[in-house]
Amino acid sequence: MWNRTLATLLLAVGVVSGAHAQTLRFGLMDDPDALDPTLARTFAGRMVFAALCDKLVDIDASLNIVPQLATEWSWSEDQKTLTMKLRPGVQFHDGEPFDAAAVKFNLERHLKLPGSQRRSEIAAIDGVDVIDNLTVAIRLKQPFAPLIAQLTDRAGMMVSPKAAQALGDKFATAPVCAGPFRFVERVAQDHITVERFDNYWNKDAIFLKRIEFRAIPDTTVRLTNLRSGQLDLLERLAPTDLPQVKGDSRLKVGSTFELGFQAIIINVSRDTQIAANPKVREALELSIDREALNQVVFNGEFLPGNQWVNPKNPFYVAAYPPPKRDVAKAKALLKEAGVANPAINMVVYADNLSQQVAQVVQAMAKEAGFDIRIQATDFGTTLNLGDQGNFDVMLYNWSGRPDPDGNTYNFLACKAPLNYTRYCNDKAMAALEASRLTNDVDKRKAAWKNLAAQVLADRPMIYLYHRKLLWAYTTRLKGFGDYPDGLVRFTGLKLD
Fold it and tell me: Which H helix or E strand runs over 376?
C-alpha cells in the first residue's frame, strides 16, 4: 500500500512538473498598452501579439517576407492591386472561420476605427474585394511599395470580426485572434496569461502550454528573477549585465541589432529656444558624443547612428554620417543664435537605462552651455504627453519596421499619428511620398537621400543610436531564434 501511494504521489508530482515545464515565464520591460492590434503602439505589446495574433505575412531571420495566414500573393501590372491567397482551415480563438471576408473586415477596421494607429500605415488602400472565400484583392489609390512590409506587423494581424463587433471598444480587454495562443487574463502592471489554442492551424509546432508575460521595468530585477528561476526568458537585457549572463552556465543570450532607432524628439511647435532656432538644435547635437554614450551606458554593445535606420542597413544614407562632437562649434552656434544657457525640459521613460542615457546627454550638453532638466515618467504617460504635444524634448525609442517607410513616414510626415515633433516640411513630404510610389530600389534610395538632406539639417529629431536587442534565457528553453524585428517566434519553442 505504501509503495502504491508513493508511486501515485511521484506520478502526480511528475504531472505537475511536466505541466509547469511547458509554462514559459517571459519578463517584459514594459506593461503593454491596449491588446488590440488596431490601437496598440508599444514594443512590449508586439511581444504579446506574437503569441496571440497571426498576421497575413511574416518575416524570417533574413528579413525575407514569408507566408503566414496568406500563402501566396501577387501584384497587378500597374502595382495598384495586391491579390492574396489565404490559408484554408484557419480558425479564430472563438471558433469562427478565418476567410477573405475577415481580411476585408480587419483592413477596413484599421482604416476606420477611431484612434487607429494603423490608419496611416495602410492609408493607400482604396478598397478590399472578396474574390472568393480564400482570395482577397487589396486595391490601392496609388502604388504603395511598403504595403507588404506593413502587413508583417499589426496592420496584418487578424482579429475575429464576431468578437470585435460584440465587444466594441472593450475588445482590448478580451482579444480574439488567430494565433497559436488564446487570451486568458490580464492584471495591469503585473502579468498577461495566454494558453495554447488547440485548433491552431500549425498546432503540431506549438509545444508550450501557457505563457505568462510579466511586466518588470527594472533591468536588474528582471535579471535577478531569471537567475533565480522565476523567469525563463527576458527581453531587452541591459548590455551592462551581458558579462554576468555569459558567465552563468544556466543561461544563454540571443541578440540582433534593431530595425529602429533611439532619438531625442524636439517639439518644434512649442515656444522654446530649441524649437524656434535650428542652430540651437544643431548645437545640442554637436554637444553629444554618440560613441562615448554607447561606451558609458551600454558597454559599447549598441550601434551609434544619426538616421532612422542603422549604419549596417542597406538603406542607410552613407553620404550623411554622424557628426563628431564639437563643443566649441556648439558654443559658437548658441552665440550666433543669441541664446545663452538654453534650458530644456527632457521627458524620459522611468526605466533605469533611459535615465542613464538622459544623464549622460545632460552632462555632455552642459559643457556646451545647455541646462537639461530630466522629467522621468512611466511609459504610458510619456506616450500621452507625445500625443498631446505637452512636452519640449523627449528621449524616445522606436523598435523599427522592415521597410524604412515604417521608421520615417509616421514620424516626419505632416500631421502623421507619431509626428510628436509637429514637424512639417514640403521637401521632406515630397521625399516621403516619392519613396512610397515605386518598388524600384534605386529610386527609393534616392528619395531617402533627399529626405536625409532635409531632415538632418532641420533636426526635429536627433537620432542617437540603435540598440542591440538582447535576450537572456534558461538553457532549458529550446528552439529560440533571433529575428531582426526583435520579436520572439513561439513556434518550435519548448522547455526541457
Answer: strand 371-377
